[in-house]
Amino acid sequence: MELKFKKPSKKTQIVMSKVALGEIPYDELEISNDINYHKIAESKLSNFTNHNHVKLVNSGNAAILTAMNSIDGAILVPDQGGWNGFKQIANFLNKKLITVKTNKGLIENEFLQESILENTESFNKNNQNALFFTSFAAYTAEQNIKEISEFCRENNILLVEDASGAISDSKKILANGEYSDIIIGSTGSPKIINVGYGGFISTNDDSVFDKSKLILKTAKINDMIASGIATEIDSAEDNLNKTIQACEYLKNNLDDVIHPDKRGINVIIKADDKSLSFNLRNNLKLDSGGMVTKCPNYNRLKEKGVAIEIKNLDISCLEKENLDYIIETINKFR
């Protein structure tokens, strides 16, 4: 059984190679060498996020830095299931940091309210505060963005969504500017828009970009990466749907799954035995990279378990035969 680590599509690889060599990649189109790959990619991202303003940057962390630099109030982050970069960049920028209790990564309005009341000195409604969170808590459970967005707007909190794992959501719930004020993401490996490098930030408020001009100038990407994003984004919705469906299949056929009824792009299983993650790493091997994360882990969940990173699998590997093999392997070592 061969399991492959996610790679950009062949079309994306060809386009990036041709651009790197100074060639025109789209032979079927009548275009000039002056094609602006950045504008093409930004326009396509804008169509997904429903935001008017989009910038490409060199990493997801650069997108976080750009967004967070524009905030003059407190930064709220989930207590688990988020991204370490939220806390690291907030500390780097000397921002007031408020940790919000969650339901195994899921943000709930009562916990947000508790965090505000417990941190009244840090939380000032006269300043622009912001909640940074990921579309899928721990990559495994879809956040209730509609309710979170309503609460945040009532309390002068900007909603900043890291949609690295959810851009192109076919349900138009995640990575949607109707709910999130700022959407950020990585296009590194192995994300939904997967070109091995880069990121993006989108918003309807271009003052976010005005406040971080130097960061954006420093975080520029070249035409090769921009052309890759512009091409790979065309496969994003299909890639995301297939990954979600694969995780749903695993969740329906495994016991002790955390958030079994939620959409996600990985599957987290409760496990007290430390040997499970060791055995799975040795038996669920990819041709490069890995697909097993041991918990507790802030980026996943702070309880004992194992995350099976289906998001890391190449789309060609998300067949029932491979998924059944993964299920059999997990059950073998439990």
N/C terminus separation: 20 Å
Q: Helical content, roughly?
A: 25-40%
- Spans of 5+ residues with little confidence (pLDDT < 50)? 28-32
Shape, please?
globular
Order of helices and strands: HHEHEHEHEEEHEEEHHHHEHEEH
Largest sheet: 7 strands, mixed
> How many helices does DSSP assign?
12
Structural class: alpha/beta
Approximate strand percentage: 15-25%
Keywords:
334 residues; alpha/beta; 7-stranded mixed beta sheet; 3-stranded antiparallel beta sheet; 12 helices; globular
Q: How would you portray this structure in words?
A:
- It is a single chain.
- With 334 residues, this protein is an alpha/beta fold.
- It contains 12 helices and 12 strands.
- Helix 2 (37-49) runs parallel beside helix 9.
- It is globular and about 55 Å long.
Summarize the structure.
It contains 12 helices and 12 strands. The chain has 334 residues and is α/β, with parallel strands linked by helices.
Helices and strands in order:
Elements: H1 10-20, H2 37-49, E1 53-57, H3 60-69, E2 75-78, H4 84-92, E3 97-100, H5 109-118, E4 129-134, E5 136-137, E6 141-142, H6 145-154, E7 157-162, E8 182-186, E9 199-203, H7 207-210, H8 213-218, H9 223-232, H10 236-252, E10 267-270, H11 275-283, E11 292-295, E12 305-308, H12 320-332
Parallel strand pairs: 2-3, 2-4, 4-7, 7-8
Antiparallel strand pairs: 1-9, 5-6, 8-9, 10-12, 11-12
Helix pairs in contact: 1-9, 2-9, 3-4
